[in-house]
Fold each of these.
Amino acid sequence: MALPGSIAAGAHDLSVHFEGLANPTRLMIVERLATTPELRVSELAVYCQVSQPLLSWHLRILRKAQVITTRREGREVFCSLDREAIAEHQSQFTRLIAFGGEQLAEPPTTNSITEGSS
Amino acid sequence: MALPGSIAAGAHDLSVHFEGLANPTRLMIVERLATTPELRVSELAVYCQVSQPLLSWHLRILRKAQVITTRREGREVFCSLDREAIAEHQSQFTRLIAFGGEQLAEPPTTNSITEGSS
DNA sequence: ATCTTTCATAAAGGCTACGTTATGGATCCT
DNA sequence: AGGATCCATAACGTAGCCTTTATGAAAGAT
């Protein structure tokens, strides 16, 4: 799907990230995880009132979307928000709608004649 | 629907908003619209290299997600980013992951004695 | 070792998103 | 008027998301 003037890898990552947030149940998970550093999978399942396999499936999507991270301790799995990755994606999107996504990972070549800021 | 001030409705709105951004083609539309105040539908279709009906369908989703707005002038339809709504949703999400969406104005009670753990 | 708890995965079905093609309505042009 | 352009919608097929039920692997408890 790569296209003209493309944002390429960045755009794909971004759409995957947003896809992770594009569901009420997953948004509920995010909201719950925002109130505490870590939560076990079973606790999240109770809170969201969904079956354990279904929650596991949602967690997989959230992990792929870089919204959460999981840590295994014995037979339990602890989930937490990936605040760093979320902030990174947010800032990427902000840049996208600010300049049009022209420069996503462009080194400062300082070749600018018309540069309004720094 | 869309009761003003409702938290539940807000969460739903948020997932709909993110769903609008959870697609490479739609993200490309957003990127393109970020570089100019307005664009016609046909121009967007050429840029994204998708058929006109398909683009029309994507635009409908973006409109419902409150990502863009459209304005009709004669037989042409001009699209533009709904920057205000986007900023509103972004800030809503930021609040969601910052405090969990519950306490918004909690003074520093400095009363950290009881920290329950189970 | 046996049983229980915790989580992941497989299989299967319903529902929706995505995409193409065809058509129609509205506006502009001649 | 007739034709051309711009956009929306309908009909339809495919692919993928969401959900349930059943099963399995791994660690802790007895």
Note: The radius of gyration of chain B is 19 Å.
Amino acid sequence: MMRRLSLEQRRAELIDAAIRVIARDGLATASTRAITAEAGMPLGAFHYVFTSREELISAVIEQVTDEERLAAWFEANLIGEPASLTDILVAGLDAYLRLLETDPGREQALLEVAMHAVRHDQPAVRAQWATYHRAALASLDHAAELAGVRWVEPVERLARSLTASLDGLTIAWLTDRDSEAARAHIRFIARSFAALAVPVVPAAQAPQAPQAPPEHPGGHGREDTAC
Amino acid sequence: MMRRLSLEQRRAELIDAAIRVIARDGLATASTRAITAEAGMPLGAFHYVFTSREELISAVIEQVTDEERLAAWFEANLIGEPASLTDILVAGLDAYLRLLETDPGREQALLEVAMHAVRHDQPAVRAQWATYHRAALASLDHAAELAGVRWVEPVERLARSLTASLDGLTIAWLTDRDSEAARAHIRFIARSFAALAVPVVPAAQAPQAPQAPPEHPGGHGREDTAC
DNA sequence: CCGAATGTTGGACGATCGTCCAAATCGGCT
DNA sequence: AGCCGATTTGGACGATCGTCCAACATTCGG
């Protein structure tokens, strides 16, 4: 029975079920039996699709790219009104925080799986890190374009800092569940990045020393006024 | 046999052994047998000291406060030479990064145990978070005093941001092991915090609007010159 | 120096794990 | 319709887990 599902469908459903189980009860309780039960499949279906539990975990890492974070970021700035870079960054970060508040277990699951991979599956964690990096790059480019600014530091560096800042934001909120403090931290992050951008002047297309930018103001556009 | 060890000594040695095992092979492999073997004790010694494995994990969380991070931070600024706030913060953060580079497994162990506690032992993780917060507070006060500045935002908020930034720094390095990029991120963090401090002027003890500080320069003292 | 009390231990137990495989089931072809 | 090869499955297996406890060792009052 159940011939109706193709191998790829079974594989995808098992991965989804695994994510739900890990989000609900943690990686330790995500046994082959728990996952197949969650997916409504017989136990034998597991090793019919995956050769081992480790392979399923690697598949989870590959599957769960940062698409949600990126989507939340971009959707947050759909409103076409012109805004300061700080506001744009705050909107993007706040969109991610709402995502985190909506489904904390999922983000915690991603963290648990990533930490597992750091120990036991270095290639997978490198790939996931690269995906995160691309998402951060796209977010920074998008924000700079919206605000009409350019970054005064290599955007590659800034992308890594943004990824690290997102992880820090996530861990802190998962630990104390203090959304108000998290939003204060978001403003801190946004202002920190905004301090590293300058308005793009159409005249100055000329090359400029990449390092040692010639004095850049703390912010730009609408100056930050409060906390 | 082995009557020589008191209950407290056994307890402490089991906790240390557990940390070593978790640091080496992860929380999942830290079984009662692995821990007692690491400690050079018979299996029975485990439930002679702890009532359950969960109790041991909680004890690990309580034991491993942030004393190492704090110690590294303060020792980094023992050299009494006057320095800019940015340099002081960089020195403290770099000291922590060296700690992380020296013993990555240990910091990863703390993260794994903390994530476990977020799911299964909320009180323990709250206590650990409070300890982290106190350490961050002390670090910020220490840095401000050394640099002769005061923070223009509530130091409580800044302490939480510092804790989150440290966690983000840790996760990023554990993931890509890129020490150079991590040090660039450290400079980013240091400058971000330095932007939120103003020189303390002995004359101006007068109250000042805590929020909306009257325009503060991006940095202070020695202006940041490069990346 | 010897029982009794205390402290200590290694093996036993039931549960659960990942993995495997022989049997059951199903879809298509004659 | 009835058989056959491919697909699917639930139970079996050995390993390992946390926990417990009867047996062992040690100490000490007498």
Note: Residues 111 and 171 of chain A are 9 Å apart (CA to CA).
